[in-house]
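=== RUN LOG ===
request id: a7f3
mode: sequence -> structure
chains: 1
length: 104
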Amino acid sequence: MADDRVDPEKTRGAQAGLTDARALSLERVAIRTRDRAVTHAGWRLTVSCAEGEGAIVLVENSTAETFLRGEGVFLGWPRERLEAAYRDLLPRAEGPDFELNQLG
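=== RESULT ===
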């Protein structure tokens, strides 16, 4: 009997229309915008897939204001598609999300 289960790592990025997508790095970057005189922090997710390489940069100016910018393969993508790809391609944590330390 064949195993019909699908490996979730193999399908990452498929929802955004990418083939064999994998995150190469997630790094904190400094971002300057034209409308503000301050430097903001953002997250740059670098991705490699069969279509090529690219990056999605996420900038959070405030809790209500978030910007996404696509580079490489993601250049010109609409905001909704960038958001879906960013969420789908974020590296997954290996261990539990929350752990209480036992003290004393």
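=== NOTES ===
Confidence is low (pLDDT under 50) at residues 1-8.
The two ends are 52 Å apart (CA to CA).
=== END ===
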